[in-house]
């Protein structure tokens, strides 16, 4: 039997991701139940609206996290887990330990964050020029 040395150090992340996926599905399901319960109560409309708003916002956050976790599990299946989706270089184990569902290496993540800032800044500059 040959030794499988390639990617053995990554296999632990699959468990972490599967646990995270199960946890998020559970959290999202429980929060659904709470929202339904609360709407049955005679709650102050404004308070209800703001609580619902908060709940929706955290559902949004957890749903997009769940999407990222699922995408990472898909990358596990097709063998691309641990590689940056932009430049194909290996994502550092340190980064994966902190964010197992990270899809970009730190360089590409920084670049994409800066791109977003830059486009916002040039948008603001354009507004100034036209204002
Ligand atoms: Zn990269």
Could you characterize what this model shows?
The protein is an all-alpha fold. The protein folds into 2 domains: 12-81; 83-131, no CATH class. Helix content is 73%, strand content 0%. The chain is built from 4 helices and no strands. The chain has helices spanning 11-40, 45-78, 93-98, 106-130. The protein is flat. Zinc ion (ZN) binds at residues 84, 86-87, 89, 104-105, 107-108.
> Helical stretch count?
4
Shape: flat
Low-confidence stretches: 1-7
What count of domains describes the coordinates?
Answer: 2
- What is the terminal separation in angstroms? 72 Å
* Structural class category: mainly alpha
Round the Cα radius of gyration to an integer and report it. Answer: 21 Å
Give the biggest beta sheet: none
Give the structure's gist in a few sentences.
The chain is mainly alpha-helical. It has helices at 11-40, 45-78, 93-98, 106-130. The protein has 4 helices and no strands.
List the helices and strands and how they pair.
Layout: H1 11-40, H2 45-78, H3 93-98, H4 106-130
Keywords:
131 residues; mainly alpha; 73% helix; flat; disordered N terminus; binds zinc ion
């Amino acid at each position: 039997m040959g030794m499988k040395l390639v990617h053995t150090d990554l296999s632990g992340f699959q468990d972490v991701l599967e646990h995270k996926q199960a946890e998020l599905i559970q959290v999202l399901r429980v929060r659904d139940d709470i929202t339904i319960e609360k709407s049955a109560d005679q709650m102050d409309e404004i308070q209800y609206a703001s609580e619902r708003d908060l709940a929706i916002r955290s559902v949004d956050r957890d749903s997009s996290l769940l999407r990222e976790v699922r995408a990472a599990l898909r990358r596990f299946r097709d063998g691309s887990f641990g590689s940056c989706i932009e430049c194909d270089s290996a994502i550092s184990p340190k980064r994966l330990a902190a964010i197992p569902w990270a899809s970009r290496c730190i360089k590409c993540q920084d670049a994409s964050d800066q791109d977003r800032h830059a486009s916002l800044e040039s948008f603001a500059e354009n507004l100034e020029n036209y204002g």
